[in-house]
Amino acid sequence: MSVVRLYGSRPTQCGYCAAKKESRQYVLEAISLAIDDYQALIDRGWRRSGMHLYQPDRDEICCVPYTIRLHAPQFTPSKAHVRVQRKLEAFLEHRNGSKKRKRPDDDDEAGPQAKKTSPSPTCVLLQTQLETAVWAYLESWIDDTAAAKTTLQPKIQVQRTKATASKAIDRGAYTSPVAHAISAYLKKHATASISAADVAVAIAARMTLPSSDMTVSAVNGFLNFSVDDEPALVSAPPTSPLQTPASPRHSSKRDWVLETVRPVNTPEIYDVYKAYQAHVHDDNAVTPSSFESFLVQSPLPAVPGSAEGSFFQLYRLDGELVAVGVIDVLGANWSSVYFFYKPKYAHLQLGTYSVLREIARCTRGNYYMGYYIGSCVKMQYKARFTPSELLCPKTLTFVPLTPDVQARADADASKVVQLAPATTLASPPQDDAVDAIELVFTDCVVSVKDARASLHPVVLQHLVDFAAMVGPHLTSRLRVQMF
User: Fold this and answer.
1) Helix axis angle, 35-42 relative to 457-475, nearest 10°?
2) Phi and psi dihedrals of 3, rounded to 5?
3) CATH H superfamily, domain 121-162+170-227
4) Which residues belong to any copy of the N-end rule aminoacyl transferase C-terminal domain (predicted)?
5) For residues 384 and 361, what is the distance between their CA atoms, to the nearest angstrom?
6) Whole-model pTM?
7) Backbone phi, psi, residue 435, to 5°
8) What is the CATH number of domain 2-90+255-426?
9) Can you tell me whether residue 292 is helix, strand or coil?
10) Residue-wise pLDDT tens for the chain (483 aa)?
11) C-alpha closest to that of 28 among 49, 4, 3
């Protein structure tokens, strides 16, 4: 039986955008939580942080989060994913790593005298689609497109992102800065002050990509394209959900081991977490107790010998702990909670590598990657694991993450977008659903129906909100602990 304590709607700072605006989220404290109940909550947009469950209030948030999941058995790694695997293998094989082999379609960075190469077929294809979207957008702003073409046509270019590019650009993909040129042109010739960021979002929404392996996103005025169109290696699945797949054989003495344990707070693990938070998130205020409450504590059952519940995945290199993945195993499904690593190993892209390993071990169900927020650069990598689905927050149904769905979700990150047809809109809770909630007091358990007359109106409203947030199925399963 699951038991929760209500905290209602609470203010919080947005951690996903540079604005750092105050947002609100619904919070529950889970005293105990059954596996099936947490699975049902995740499928309604909830996540957990330690013992607390939360769901952003999408009416009062600057960045709308969409739950994203991947159907693991259908996943095929892209060429970019395979490169991550090979990079680690090369590092383990040669100790000092190996020189990056130049791909035929990489930009030549040897200098101004370097030999110029023809654009790759992918660049040509993306540029053709980009031109169509650009002129479709400009038709609504200018009458004399002939004059505009003289100025803007040479600037409609797509190129592979260089390693030295700005952090605003999605590394390893294709990119175009044309939105900046369009913004400047409109300001001069159409007296329209439109930012490059807004132009990029509008053009991305108008693009029709020829393949589901291609995605487009708008980041700080750049149009970034992800292309995952080559077959890749697929690792053999383990024989049980928590059995560690055999690591690749290496001729060197480097030993790469993945160990799965129940969450535990040790100095070794905490030191890796502390270094990661300081380096990646500029957070120097972490303490052992904050780490404990954030990642070690879990309301999920920890039955000895069970393959379900919360786990730490410890990655060791020659015995040294270099990274930790935090996961919840929910029957056939896996939910990624967090990942942290030693900063000196950042070049190995261990975050992506850990996702690949977890997907390989989630052999029968869905792999939940948390939230997807199109305006957050750090989250855009999630859309490159396919086939993925986004949870429509209005219908509470999952829809395939197609380029069209992604463009609509990314178009305005501050507004909730209905991604699924309006045939199953979530409805407000009925009185009988609220009456079915069981309240846990010190000496008894009473239904809301029997206690309604004695409940304060504020408490009753909290229970109505709770029923709306968890749905009719869970109102009869989640008991509410009264303060």
Assistant:
1) 100
2) -130, 130
3) Arginyl tRNA synthetase N-terminal domain (3.30.1360.70)
4) 268-392
5) 19
6) 0.68
7) -60, -25
8) 3.40.630
9) helix
10) 899 999 988 888 776 665 566 788 999 999 999 999 999 999 999 999 999 999 988 777 778 899 999 999 999 899 999 999 999 988 988 745 444 444 443 333 334 343 445 566 677 778 888 888 888 888 767 767 777 888 888 888 888 776 443 333 333 468 888 889 888 888 887 766 788 888 888 888 788 776 666 778 888 888 888 765 433 333 333 334 454 444 444 444 688 999 999 999 999 999 999 999 999 888 899 999 999 999 999 999 999 888 999 999 999 999 999 999 999 999 999 999 999 999 999 999 999 999 999 999 898 899 999 999 887 777 888 999 999 999 998 889 999 999 999 888 888 777 888 888 876 666 666 667 898 999 999 889 999 999 999 999 999 999 999 999 999 889 989 999 987
11) 4
Local structure of residue 110 (DSSP, 8 states): S
Which amino acid would we find at residue 336? S
Instruction: Judge contact between 467 and 437, C-beta under 8 A.
Output: yes
Cβ–Cβ < 8 Å for 175, 169: yes
Give the number of other Cβ atoms within 10 Å of residue 461's Cβ. Answer: 12
Say what angle helices 178-189 and 196-206 make with each other, to 10 degrees: 110
Q: DSSP H helical segments within 7-78, as ranges?
A: 35-42
Contacts of 178 (CB under 8 A, 6+ apart): 130, 134, 152, 155, 156, 157, 203, 223
Sign of the alpha-carbon torsion through 73, 77, 82, 88: negative
Using an 8 Å Cβ cutoff, are 452 and 426 in contact? no
Write out the two tokens for 226. Answer: 């992800």
Pairing assessment for the beta strands 22-32 and 2-13 based on DSSP bridges = antiparallel
Residue 120 is given by DSSP the state P
Are 66 and 379 contacting, i.e. CB atoms less than 8 angstroms apart? Answer: no
The residue behind tokens 């002129």 is: 135
Domain with CATH 3.40.630 in the chain: 2-90+255-426
Q: Of 237, 128, 141, 104, whose CA–CA distance to 176 is shortest?
A: 128
Pinpoint the residues of the chain covered by CATH 3.30.1360.70: 121-162+170-227
- Which residues are paired to 384 by β-bridges? none
